[in-house]
Design a protein that fits this description.
The protein has about 100 residues and is mainly α. It is built from 3 helices and no strands. It is elongated. The two termini are about 30 Å apart.
């Protein structure tokens, strides 16, 4: 469906050229995969390194109290202790076209 909209196609081409140096910023999520089965899942080590207590936020909405939310999620997070892995982050930059 995205390919039927010329302005979406132009934007995707533009973004892929401008953000060429950045792996994810220039890639269209609408065209990323032809089927859900072809989506690559992160390695199991990724979850152990990135899903750590200091990076997890649990948000609850609706008719629920804080104590009810703690009861619902508490058992699953009891003893959840991991140290975050240090990462080097780079700021995306524009790539000049030759």
């Amino acid at each position: 469906m995205v390919e039927d909209t010329p302005d979406d196609i132009i934007h995707d081409i533009f973004a892929s050229q401008v953000w060429k140096a950045t792996r994810s910023a220039g890639r269209s999520s609408a065209r990323a995969s032809s089927s859900p089965a072809s989506i690559a899942m992160p390695s199991p080590g990724y979850f152990g390194e990135e899903y750590v207590p200091s990076k997890v936020i649990i948000a609850v909405a609706g008719n629920v109290t804080h104590d009810q939310a703690v009861d619902l999620f508490g058992a699953g997070f009891n003893g959840f202790q991991r140290t975050p892995v240090e990462r080097t982050h780079t700021t995306p930059g524009l790539t000049a076209r030759p």
